[in-house]
Amino acid sequence: MFRNQYDTDVTTWSPAGRLFQVEYAMEAVKQGSAAIGLRSKTHVVLACVNKANSELSSHQRKIFKVDDHIGVAIAGLTADGRVLSRYMRSECINYGYTYESPLPVGRLVVQLADKAQVCTQRSWKRPYGVGLLVAGLDESGAHLYYNCPSGNYFEYQAFAIGSRSQAAKTYLERKFEKFPESSRDDLVKDALFAIRETLQGEKLTSSVCTIAVVGVGEAFNILDQETVQALINEFEISGEEAPTNESAAEQAGGDADSAPDQSGAAAEGEAAPMDI
Amino acid sequence: MFRNQYDTDVTTWSPAGRLFQVEYAMEAVKQGSAAIGLRSKTHVVLACVNKANSELSSHQRKIFKVDDHIGVAIAGLTADGRVLSRYMRSECINYGYTYESPLPVGRLVVQLADKAQVCTQRSWKRPYGVGLLVAGLDESGAHLYYNCPSGNYFEYQAFAIGSRSQAAKTYLERKFEKFPESSRDDLVKDALFAIRETLQGEKLTSSVCTIAVVGVGEAFNILDQETVQALINEFEISGEEAPTNESAAEQAGGDADSAPDQSGAAAEGEAAPMDI
Amino acid sequence: MFRNQYDTDVTTWSPAGRLFQVEYAMEAVKQGSAAIGLRSKTHVVLACVNKANSELSSHQRKIFKVDDHIGVAIAGLTADGRVLSRYMRSECINYGYTYESPLPVGRLVVQLADKAQVCTQRSWKRPYGVGLLVAGLDESGAHLYYNCPSGNYFEYQAFAIGSRSQAAKTYLERKFEKFPESSRDDLVKDALFAIRETLQGEKLTSSVCTIAVVGVGEAFNILDQETVQALINEFEISGEEAPTNESAAEQAGGDADSAPDQSGAAAEGEAAPMDI
Amino acid sequence: MFRNQYDTDVTTWSPAGRLFQVEYAMEAVKQGSAAIGLRSKTHVVLACVNKANSELSSHQRKIFKVDDHIGVAIAGLTADGRVLSRYMRSECINYGYTYESPLPVGRLVVQLADKAQVCTQRSWKRPYGVGLLVAGLDESGAHLYYNCPSGNYFEYQAFAIGSRSQAAKTYLERKFEKFPESSRDDLVKDALFAIRETLQGEKLTSSVCTIAVVGVGEAFNILDQETVQALINEFEISGEEAPTNESAAEQAGGDADSAPDQSGAAAEGEAAPMDI
Amino acid sequence: MFRNQYDTDVTTWSPAGRLFQVEYAMEAVKQGSAAIGLRSKTHVVLACVNKANSELSSHQRKIFKVDDHIGVAIAGLTADGRVLSRYMRSECINYGYTYESPLPVGRLVVQLADKAQVCTQRSWKRPYGVGLLVAGLDESGAHLYYNCPSGNYFEYQAFAIGSRSQAAKTYLERKFEKFPESSRDDLVKDALFAIRETLQGEKLTSSVCTIAVVGVGEAFNILDQETVQALINEFEISGEEAPTNESAAEQAGGDADSAPDQSGAAAEGEAAPMDI
Amino acid sequence: MFRNQYDTDVTTWSPAGRLFQVEYAMEAVKQGSAAIGLRSKTHVVLACVNKANSELSSHQRKIFKVDDHIGVAIAGLTADGRVLSRYMRSECINYGYTYESPLPVGRLVVQLADKAQVCTQRSWKRPYGVGLLVAGLDESGAHLYYNCPSGNYFEYQAFAIGSRSQAAKTYLERKFEKFPESSRDDLVKDALFAIRETLQGEKLTSSVCTIAVVGVGEAFNILDQETVQALINEFEISGEEAPTNESAAEQAGGDADSAPDQSGAAAEGEAAPMDI
Amino acid sequence: MFRNQYDTDVTTWSPAGRLFQVEYAMEAVKQGSAAIGLRSKTHVVLACVNKANSELSSHQRKIFKVDDHIGVAIAGLTADGRVLSRYMRSECINYGYTYESPLPVGRLVVQLADKAQVCTQRSWKRPYGVGLLVAGLDESGAHLYYNCPSGNYFEYQAFAIGSRSQAAKTYLERKFEKFPESSRDDLVKDALFAIRETLQGEKLTSSVCTIAVVGVGEAFNILDQETVQALINEFEISGEEAPTNESAAEQAGGDADSAPDQSGAAAEGEAAPMDI
């Protein structure tokens, strides 16, 4: 498993000008269960796959409310994600208290990115192992950002992260041009379709996914399971057209995360990987 | 025993996006003696196997009262568990003093998880080597959480951790659907049955296990040995149906912790492993 | 990938008197998408290639306004660049508040260089992985500086950094003698021509590049996409004379960054390189 | 002497979830000269073997008075033990000054264990290399605890630690059921018999052992040599029934510390091991 | 490129009593472009070769004014040199403010040397990679010092540092006896001749060198390019007697820095060396 | 010279529960020139061998007065010993100032031992490399302690440390039973005889040894050379009975420090060992 | 050049109880140019060889005035020596200001030794690489001390340190018995003779050595070059009896520092050793 001598310390550059430890942390995002986001001019929808640890437990929460106008979906190290989302919550409260107006989404995203950047430049820390899709609504409209372990952030019309997210991205790319004018309900429908793409033939039910919405006149809220199931039934999504092998192959070629996946599986017999 | 170059430092990511030191700390939980928890709508029962160090000593305590409405059962490094449970006790006292109401269980669990997360992101610390089953009752009802060395936590209907916990988990999975409506005494009975599954044919007596209960109208309390023995006798649990080889085999295949177990045994001749 | 024993720590000199970690950080600049700058006596123009992460996202911003009279274009680690440009912004505000006059460009550039130098002399940090083209106008005229990860800075008439920048540099070297007397619009036109040189046959459109201008009577501003497209159409730049193979070969021989490029590509199958 | 890559740093987990440095520190306890403790309902007796450095010196003290109601016997690194027993003394004084009542034994033992736990979770420290048998009397009766380098503690009816302690443990296990009702003098007698078991045929005299007692109406005190010799004579212990080879063999098989012993002896020609 | 185990840490002595990291930092001075200094009783002249990064940029400044009576020429890591010269400037200002008289040159040189020494005795720093020729005039006359990365300093009649400085040193050694009585203009002429020796056949023009003078009645000033060109023309230096192969050979044998030069060149294909 | 992986860091335990770095520091004591101490009920005598660095120098002082009632003789690293004896002096002064009575010897010895223990539990320090024989007189009589680098201390009737101390120890063991009742002068005589044993046939003169006495009615004082020579002459010690080969052989077998001695000698050609 | 695993860290003991890093620092003293000192009852003379860096420079100063009654000559790392002599100067000033009397020489020497000792017990520092001959006059007479990198100091009648100092030591040992009664001028003469012994046949002139004197009625002063030349002429020292090969051979055998010398010379082709 030896790669090179430049990849064990976050403050060490490789000869080709790369920071491998940051890239490896980005791998942790790819290993997490999938999360997707998409937005119209007025609404943002977040969705994620509920990872079932066991029949005995509730699923691990992957979508968090930050404030009435902001929410976040994570993929990767859940504990890191929880710590970061509490940081966001605290920033929103402080801003609201000081300025008596909601914290602009873009501003929060930059603060979050700076917090991540610091962890890429101190030898006694490690980069966060989590990707965050930040959905928010402010005076400049609806926003969807992706915050990456590297300290970068990007604004998206629609995006998908986590394991098998390539299939969802392919779906979103086919449809995104109509999103800006989509109604809230169409966005939710597309979110459900995109999530189904990541399930590899598993049946889409309200128990395997979580959906959250924020928009004009609608505070950030996570839809309850009944509502989601009703939507699934209504849209007749469930079970129709299983993901084809092509899209799976496309994925393998597309982002090359299948190799890590295999080594992960091989290693699984030795020590259980963290829940990410 | 060499694995790879990414697994000796908690701040080093592997190329596949894993933090091996955190996973190894999770192994310590698997090596500890078993602990189980299960809950109905009104009660939570914790149970653990008493590890006999020697005839001369009392057994090592693995269940601690945190507050009147919260208790904890641990598996793994006992010293780490003791330090964390005292932290929980202190948080409960402070909250009660400030707000004159009991600390909500979920809130305490998040604080505990954050304390664990910090130890996964500092190069001069190590992750805690202990898993905690937190049982509590608050305004939102009875709760059972599992806090993991990774800084994650999960809410469970019923769960088992520690060595040979797979057999208990199998038992709980067969029965958990009826737990929400179970009476307090049925929960205790199921706890005793689940514990027996982890004993590998050893006779279940009140000296090999500890049982604690918290519920509506019942502060967290550890049942005294006579009560437990009376229950065992009443339920006629003891000795009936020894754990079959199948379930043992299932366990070996199921969670693959038998390999570490063997290497642990092989190493035992060299230096005595800690009491976990 | 082993080179030598002197290249993993930024505080270690090689026997030949080199600091390899600083040089490797300079490689990160070469891997970033291209940025160019050029100036006349009265105006400075910055231009950069917009790296398309995905159809779904807006492009990553690489040009930032610092103050009314100063702006910056970056190549390399975007997160580092963002942190540094906010530092610059904050210095400009403080200076303006104290002295009620704009911060001289050269002075800001020296402060920026000193901040970078510190990171080359502390064992627990790493050099910044970003190059900055700083464009500004002050009492002494229009200025264009290049700030390097090593803590050096240089004043230029025109310069290009980032991947495939050699072709743009070649173009600028052929033309730079006329720049001092160029009109604002001629500068913009030359910027567009230079950017096209780095595109390797890709068609130049307003979506693949960003242009910013600062000059006498014109505060630093990023041109909107329509304006840029109009300019491209007006100048009839798009598509005419694709970059020849000669210039590509010249580039490979000229700055030898093709070798790292290849190793980068070979490694790409393993872990996705950061967005730089 | 190479074992594995996980055993040189106290903050590094092994893949099997063990902290080898803590286990190695526990080995130091096994290498120390033997100490034993036993208690009735009213009295606790501590005893230890006096290690003769040389004819010229008094023996190294291994039993310390902490307060009128608490005393301690150590095995392992004497310097670590001395530092810890002074810590205990200081805690007792502070408690007595604040609450005007003696510090409960169990509470002191927990504080001691926490102090030890901290040394197992900081990379720049090492675990203490000493085991402590804490004897005390408080409102809840007579207590005997064993504090281990791992930060664990155990309550015992009777226990023995240090080199060749297995033989003493075997003796104590045969007899411990009658200890709760034993008279003070019978406890002392059993302590002397247990100590003799660890001597491997050496004659038991008052100069090779130290005895201390704490109990109802008797402050913690170390018996003077004449008293001990008188007891030995009275009980006619000395010389009668030399430890048989069987028990030695039993010991070798029982705790497997003979291997370290040999390597220790082999290494003795190189550098003198510390006095432990 | 492995040398030995004593040369990666500045706080590690080699068995022969050498600090290799300090010596390697001194190599950085040898790799920098050449700088020379020479003095009469009343004047000091500094000169350096302008390294042309590119046609597009102004050359990197290597001569800095510190105060009216002090200036400095550097060879080696420019960023380190800039930081140190600002330190000098600040010391001069503070002294002038406190004592209302110029800071004596020798005193400043000692402070500078002490700042360098500290960096040779802390494990988390690195020695500065720059040599400084300090020219100054104070009550005790004209002075020329050389400050070395090792924390040493030397007073010189004339000296040359940087790449190919051996040829200049040879020239200066032939002529230095007449320097004390030289006129200002003769000093400048000798400076130009010495600089030409380092050019290896390249034509001496005002664009390839910078000249600065400080002396009685003349504050430290850098001569403008026209003045220098006029002097070159006047003295008819340019082009006459190209440096012979003998002097080049002499150099190679004399200071043996050609070996590092070659390894430097060989390595150049991999990663661009810093501008020094 | 490689031993194992556990012996380069003072905070690393070996698998057998040893701290090698502490043991190696104890070797430094064995390499120092010999020091001996012996006491009666009323007096303590310290003696040491004067190591002749050169004819040109006075010998290195190895006996220090701490206070009127305490003195110390050292073997090992002289610089460490000097620092520790000044610490002792300062403690005595502070105690005397606060309590207006002399600091009890045993108390000072414990403080000294604790200072040494701290250096065995911090990764960024090293154990002191010096052994101290502390001689003192207080209300409880005359005392002789040995403080070891491990943080241990021992009370002795008589003891010898340093190179070839085994021969002196053998002498002292033959005679120590009469020491408690010895007169001051007999103690001094025995000290001289013991010192002679360590000289390996070298003639005992007042220049090769230093003698100090503290006792009832006699403040700690170092005897002047004339007095010592007079005593040597009076007792007719010098030259009579050279140490036999037997005792030398006994020594080699007895403490096995001859092996390190040889390796030390072999290494001497490379780098001069410190004066210890 | 690999020696062993114990010689790269100043806080690591070797198995034989040596601190190699301290010994290596002592090698730096041996590599420095020679310095000698000698004293009568009333005067102390320091002398050193002036190392000629180049014709162009003044020689490196190796003798420093500390106060009117104290001066110092150094061999080894000049920068370290300069820092230490300024520390001494500052201590003298502070003492004089507080007590209105000169600081006793012995006291200053102890403070200096303690400063050196600290650098041998911290992992993030390195031992000073310089030896100091301290000459001083106080109420107790004239003193000559040698302070070593190990933190030791010695009082000498006469001593020589640095490269080829063995020949000077041999000379001084032949003559030292008459030094106490020597006149000031005889001491100076002997100093010059001793210096000549270190020159290996080079002619002794006033330019190759520096002489300083402190004594009754004569503040510490460095003799000017004319005075020294006059003395050389007067004593007719120069050139008479060149050092014989015998003394050179004696030296090689005597202190074995020729081996490091050779390795030093061999290495010289790689990187220039520091000026020491």
TrEMBL record, chains A, B, C, D, E, F, G:
<comment type="subunit">
    <text>Component of the 20S core complex of the 26S proteasome. The 26S proteasome is composed of a core protease (CP), known as the 20S proteasome, capped at one or both ends by the 19S regulatory particle (RP/PA700). The 20S proteasome core is composed of 28 subunits that are arranged in four stacked rings, resulting in a barrel-shaped structure. The two end rings are each formed by seven alpha subunits, and the two central rings are each formed by seven beta subunits. The catalytic chamber with the active sites is on the inside of the barrel.</text>
</comment>
<dbReference type="GO" id="GO:0006511">
    <property type="term" value="P:ubiquitin-dependent protein catabolic process"/>
</dbReference>
<dbReference type="Pfam" id="PF10584">
    <property type="entry name" value="Proteasome_A_N"/>
</dbReference>
<dbReference type="InterPro" id="IPR001353">
    <property type="entry name" value="Proteasome_sua/b"/>
</dbReference>
<dbReference type="GO" id="GO:0005634">
    <property type="term" value="C:nucleus"/>
</dbReference>
<keyword id="KW-0539">Nucleus</keyword>
<dbReference type="InterPro" id="IPR029055">
    <property type="entry name" value="Ntn_hydrolases_N"/>
</dbReference>
<dbReference type="GO" id="GO:0005737">
    <property type="term" value="C:cytoplasm"/>
</dbReference>
<comment type="function">
    <text>The proteasome is a multicatalytic proteinase complex which is characterized by its ability to cleave peptides with Arg, Phe, Tyr, Leu, and Glu adjacent to the leaving group at neutral or slightly basic pH.</text>
</comment>
<comment type="subunit">
    <text>The 20S proteasome core is composed of 28 subunits that are arranged in four stacked rings, resulting in a barrel-shaped structure. The two end rings are each formed by seven alpha subunits, and the two central rings are each formed by seven beta subunits.</text>
</comment>
<comment type="similarity">
    <text>Belongs to the peptidase T1A family.</text>
</comment>
<protein>
    <recommendedName>
        <fullName>Proteasome subunit alpha type</fullName>
    </recommendedName>
</protein>
<dbReference type="GO" id="GO:0019773">
    <property type="term" value="C:proteasome core complex, alpha-subunit complex"/>
</dbReference>
<feature type="region of interest" description="Disordered">
    <location>
        <begin position="239"/>
        <end position="276"/>
    </location>
</feature>
<keyword id="KW-0647">Proteasome</keyword>
<dbReference type="InterPro" id="IPR035144">
    <property type="entry name" value="Proteasome_alpha1"/>
</dbReference>
<keyword id="KW-0963">Cytoplasm</keyword>
<dbReference type="InterPro" id="IPR023332">
    <property type="entry name" value="Proteasome_alpha-type"/>
</dbReference>
<dbReference type="InterPro" id="IPR000426">
    <property type="entry name" value="Proteasome_asu_N"/>
</dbReference>
<feature type="domain" description="Proteasome alpha-type subunits">
    <location>
        <begin position="6"/>
        <end position="28"/>
    </location>
</feature>
<dbReference type="InterPro" id="IPR050115">
    <property type="entry name" value="Proteasome_alpha"/>
</dbReference>
<dbReference type="Pfam" id="PF00227">
    <property type="entry name" value="Proteasome"/>
</dbReference>
